[in-house]
TrEMBL record:
SUPFAM superfamilies assigned to the protein according to its UniProt record, in alphabetical order: Cytochrome P450 (SSF48264)
UniProt-annotated location(s): Membrane
GO MF annotation terms: heme binding; iron ion binding; monooxygenase activity; oxidoreductase activity, acting on paired donors, with incorporation or reduction of molecular oxygen
Cofactor: heme
Membrane topology: Single-pass membrane protein
Organism, scientific name: Daucus carota subsp. sativus
Entry similarity comment: Belongs to the cytochrome P450 family.
Residues making up the signal peptide according to the UniProt record: 1-21
Protein name (database record): Cytochrome P450
Alphabetized UniProt keyword annotations: Heme, Iron, Membrane, Metal-binding, Monooxygenase, Oxidoreductase, Signal, Transmembrane, Transmembrane helix
Top-level taxon of the source organism: Eukaryota
Amino acid sequence: MLLSLFVSVSLSLMLLSVLHGYYTCYKKKLFSLHFPRSYPLVGTLLAFYKNRRRLIHWYTDLLSESHSQTIVVHRLGARRTIITANPDNVEYILKTRFDNFPKGKPFTEILGDFLGSGIFNVDGTLWNSQRKLASHEFSTKSLREFMVNVLEEEVENKLFPLLEKVCENDVVLDLQHVLRSFAFDTICKVALGIDPCCLDDSKPDSKPAQPLASAFDAASEISAMRGAATVSAVWKMKRALNIGSEKKLREAVAVVHGSVDDIIRVKKKDMDSGGEEARDLLSRLLSAGNDDEMVRDMVISFLMAGRDTTSSALTWLFWLISINETAKQELVNEVTSLDDLDFEKLKDMNYTKACLCESMRLYPPVVWDSKHAAANDILPDGTAVFKGDRVTYFPYGMGRMEELWGKDKMEFRPDRWFDEPGLLKMVSPYKFPVFQAGPRVCLGKEMAFIQMKYVVASVMRRFEFKPVCLEEPVFVPLLTGHMAGGFKVKVSKRI
C-alpha cells in the first residue's frame, strides 16, 4: 500500500515537473516573440489605437525587446499580423518560401484602384510575365544611357537654374518638394517620353500645376490612408458609397489613368507613322506588342517607384550630411574629384553609395512590406504562420536593431559600409531589404543608384544647403516615407 502510494506521488511529482518545464519554456517562447498586450475579443486593438500615430516607433521598440526580433499582433477586425526584423525570416519569406508568401488579395485591394494589374500589385503568372518583360528592358544598355542623358538635361536646364535663382534671391527653399518635382519630371521622361514640367523655376515652392502630377499625389496619399486604416471595412464602405476620400481617390485615379491612356494613344500613332526610334520605356513596351491596359498599369507602377523612392532617399541624405560635417566633406571630396559624370564614373562613386545606403538604413523609402501566407508555415525563428496571416518585414525597424548594426545603430556612419577604405562590403539584402530581395528584388535598383548619385554629385559640386530648422525632422510613413512639413533650406554656392 505504502509502495503504491509512493509510486503514485513520485509519478505525480514527475508529471508536475515536466509540466512546469513545458510551461516555463512556453513562457520563454512567448516572451521571445514579445506579443503586445492582448485582451479577450479585442486583442491588441487598444495598444494599436494608443500607438496609431507612432506605429513605426512602437513596432521598433517591441522588436528591439523581442529575443527573436519578431512580434505577433492580434486586433479586432484585422488579420493576425506577424512583423519581423529577423534577416533569416526575411530570407525565408522573400526567397526560400517565395511561393507561399505572395502579396495576397488584402494587399492588392488597397492599391488595386490606383495601380491596377501593374507589376507591383499582382502575383502568380501575371506578375511573372510582366517581370520577364520588364527585366529585359531594364537590362538594356540603351535605356541606362537614355536615363543618364535625361538626368543631364533635367539638371542643367531645370535644377541648376532654379537653385541659382534661389541663391540670388536669398529665399527659403523646400528641397523635398524640389526633389519630388525633379524626380517626377525625370521618371516621366524615362518611362513615358513626356515632360510634365513640374520643376518650374519661377515657382520653386508651388504645387505641381500639371493635372497628372497633382492627381498622382492625391492617389498615392489616399491609397496610403487605406493601408493605415484601423478597420478596412471603413474605406470599403466609403468606396461603395463614393463619398469622402474614396470619391477623391476615384477622381484622381480617373485623371491618372486617362492621362496615361492619352499618352499611349499618341505614342502608338507616332510609332505607326514611323516616328523616332523608341527610347523611353513606354515605347519599348508597346513595340513588343503588349496589351495597352497592362502597359498602362506597368508604367504607372514605375512612375510611383521612380518618383517617390528616390526623392525620399535624397531628401533624408541631404539632411543627414548637413548635420554630419565629416561625412559631408568626404562626399564633397569624392564628387569634386570627377572630371565628368558618365555612367562608368557614377558606378565607381563608392562613398556616395555608402552615404545613400546609410541614409536608407535609417530612413528607408519603403518602411514595410507585407505578404499574406497562402498556407500554414513556420518561420526560421519558430514563429507559427497560419493561412491568411499578414506577414510583414520591416526595413525601418531592421535599420534600428542593435543585433544587426551594433550599439551605434542610430549614428550616421557611411564607413560601416566598407570592408576597407574604398572597398564596399557585401551586405546581405535580407539584412538591408530596402530594395526587397529574392525573386521580387527591385529591377530599377541600379538605375535608382545612378540617378541619386548623379543628383548628389551635380548639386554638391556647386551648391551648399543649410537647414532652416536644426531640430530632427519627423519621418512620415505613407506609401513612401517623407519629411513632415518638407525640408526647408537656405541655398548658397559652394566656394
